[in-house]
Design brief:
This protein is of the alpha+beta class and 230 residues long. It contains 8 helices and 9 strands.
Length: 230
């Protein structure tokens, strides 16, 4: 592709500033009125088709969240992933609901700490074939997504999670893990890993009253969350 540069065209007007995130592949561009990110054709093909933007231009208010969630390794030290996931849940509810198991399953299969489409692509064709073969079995553990109705233009989604337990902040799968710890905050499960950071934030905002309970010592976080559901 032709790299964005000062004075070149963008969907939001003439480019005034360019920041390189991944040389040759991911760029942040700003104009007089708006901005966003530009992906190379190679990287744009790695974005899930359900929310891929033709041409690789992702505007800064919403669509950049698609880029960040897809190429997490490139943004891990800078991005607020809680906010990224919140944006996707609000604006791409169906696509995000369908996509997040891919993140979980791919990380588990390839042993990745952080999901990254480019990293998965480097594994080669055989690894991708292995993933494609295993995903149907892994999907059997996924919760069902049930669309209920629309109210004021907002679609409500009901999730039947079954026995699956995911952290609502980092999306890590705790279903079969034995560790204890964590808590529930305003209906959201906070895993033992996220608990210290999130608790500090909650106390900083003075929202301790919204903590609905802590996992009892000696009981796994997963079993405790399942008991809370019941």
């Amino acid at each position: 592709m032709r790299h964005p540069e000062v004075g070149s065209w963008s969907p939001w007007g003439s480019v005034q500033h360019v920041q390189v995130v991944v040389p040759g592949h991911i760029y942040v561009v700003t104009t007089a009125s708006h901005g966003g990110m530009k992906l190379s054709a190679e990287y744009n093909r790695l974005v899930d088709p359900s929310w891929r933007v033709k041409g690789g231009w992702y505007e800064e208010d919403v669509d950049v969240a698609i880029v960040i969630i897809t190429f997490q390794k490139s943004f891990a030290a800078k991005a607020d992933m809680d906010e990224v996931r919140s944006v996707l849940a609000r604006h791409y509810a169906k696509e995000y609901s369908d996509w997040w198991p891919q993140e979980r399953d791919t990380k588990a299969l390839f042993g990745l700490d952080v999901y990254d489409a480019a990293e998965v692509s480097k594994q080669g064709k055989q690894a991708i074939a292995d993933l494609s073969a295993m995903l149907p079995k892994l999907r059997e553990k996924r919760p069902a997504r049930i669309f209920e109705s629309e109210h004021g233009g907002v679609k409500r989604i009901q999730i039947d999670p079954g026995d699956t337990v995911l952290c609502d902040f980092c999306n890590a799968d705790w279903t079969d893990r034995p560790e204890s710890g964590g808590f529930v905050f305003s209906g959201s499960a906070v895993c033992p890993t996220c608990a210290p950071v999130q608790l500090k934030k909650i106390k900083g905002y003075g929202e301790e009253d919204a903590i609905q309970g802590y996992c009892p010592s000696g009981m796994s976080f997963a079993d405790w969350v399942r008991s809370m559901r019941r």
